[in-house]
Amino acid sequence: MKIVLETKRLLFLEFDVSHAMEMFMLNDDPDVIKFTGDVPFKDVKVAEQLILNYDQYKNYQMGRWTVLLRKTNDYLGWCGLKYHTDVNEVDIGYRFHKKYWGRGYASEAAEACLKYGFEKLKLKRIIGRAMKENIASI
After folding, report:
1. Contact of 26 with 99, CB cutoff 8 Å
2. What is the DSSP letter of 106?
3. What is the pLDDT of residues 73-112, one digit of tens each?
4. How crowded is the C-beta side of 34, counted as CA atoms within 13 Å?
5. How far apart are the first and last CA of the chain?
6. CA 117, CA 124: separation in Å to the nearest integer?
């Protein structure tokens, strides 16, 4: 798997079916998806299909990326940019397993992705959305 971005503590890779179970478990945690508006995946096959059909990398040179802990290769979750064709906007988003919350990983990951968007892709604007109840993400 090709490393797309790196930070001091994190590695960013394109989605791969080898992480389908982790992605399923991430999306199956009600606390993780509480403020997303998403519903849990029905099963791991849904995660596999999302990964196999994910076209953001090929079409826009950006996307949500798998985030691994550099020292251990543990799967933390995902972070990245997403182009929304319906509104012609790029947003930043992330989702991490609860056991990694409160350690600054989301901030570190978001900063790396924003830098990629502004410096490498030369984007003029990247939006971020969070429900007002989601204080940690704000």
Report:
1. no
2. H
3. 999 999 999 999 999 999 999 999 999 999 999 999 999 9
4. 12
5. 31
6. 9
